[in-house]
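=== RUN LOG ===
request id: a7f3
mode: sequence -> structure
chains: 1
length: 213
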Amino acid sequence: MAKSKTTSAWDALSASFDDDGFLDTKVQGAMDTISGSLTTISNAHHLIHDGVTFFVTHVDDSPPTNIADQSMIAFKTHATTKIHMLYRGTASAAAEFQVWEGPSAGAAGGTEVSVLNRDRDSATASTMRGARVLTAAKVTTYVIADSGNVTGGTIIYREQMGASGQGLMTTGGNTRDVGEMILKSDTVYAFVVESLDVNDNIHQIYLTWYERV
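=== RESULT ===
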């Protein structure tokens, strides 16, 4: 008969004490020396240590100078691995940050960029694939000159940022855990910054995520 979750949790807690009723030295090492409280880390922090958290960045400093000029990162998710995504876009002038679900990536344009593990010693590779040729552990970045090769899909998130000519980087999107988006499996996504006026506009996109089957 399988143990209940309550019994398993109690067994794990009991194993933390020695035969004399004192905390095991390994557990003591995880305690704050002043208060005696157990020290913990967040789930996001733990997943970085597990080597399953990844990131990519893209800067388009062409710079875009016309209304509707777009920069983007596009990719296709894995068929079974879940992508837990956090995202941020920045711009130096008026712009809109967008998330497209299910667009099509044409045969031309874009640059394949390697996905990086946030644990730089980890050999674990991302299941992400580039949007255009589906290269493993890659995403595809687009500057304004070739972003027109990604079309269609549904805009599922949009956020305006900045003001005309203000000259400071402004941010849209979310890199807090509460803003996490679990992406559809086996689906193309594009994360986009689009200019809203004719001022010179430097676009930046940052994506970070962890992966679980």
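=== NOTES ===
Helices lie at 5-14, 25-28, 43-49.
The CA atoms of residues 129 and 136 lie 5 Å apart.
=== END ===
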